[in-house]
Amino acid sequence: MVRRADFLAANRGRRAPMPGFVLLVRERADGDAAMRYGITVTKKIGGAVIRNRMKRRFRVLARELLPVHGVPGADHVLIGRSDGIERDFSLLRAELEKALRKVMTRPAGESRGRSPRSPERKRHISAASGPGQEEAEQ
């Protein structure tokens, strides 16, 4: 996956947090049984060398495990966490297998434990107004 829209869509799917990464899985429902994957490692994790090392490790894991344990017709996104930098590779493999099993057992509608924010929810604005607000309102 390379398009930002695909990553954002996967964020609305099922989620399996692990110590070294977070796995997001979203079924595309487009009739194509191909499994796609994407990898995200932010600058908070480290410099370019560390981020690229993590991405290489995730690529190998995805190519090895997704054909066997992945969800057909779904997008899979691995988001790197700081605990995954120096994590043992066999431990990461076991965690990814566990995350894929966890995602497969969870129903599609049950993505997270919390309910989405209601659109009617309004922000509370304090009644006190400062001196600069009167000029901005006019």
From TrEMBL:
GO terms for molecular function: ribonuclease P activity. Its EC number is 3.1.26.5. Keywords: Endonuclease, Hydrolase, Nuclease, RNA-binding, tRNA processing. Gene3D superfamilies: 3.30.230.10. Residues 102-138 are annotated as: Disordered. The keyword Methyltransferase does not apply. It catalyses: Endonucleolytic cleavage of RNA, removing 5'-extranucleotides from tRNA precursor. Consists of a catalytic RNA component (M1 or rnpB) and a protein subunit. This is Ribonuclease P protein component.
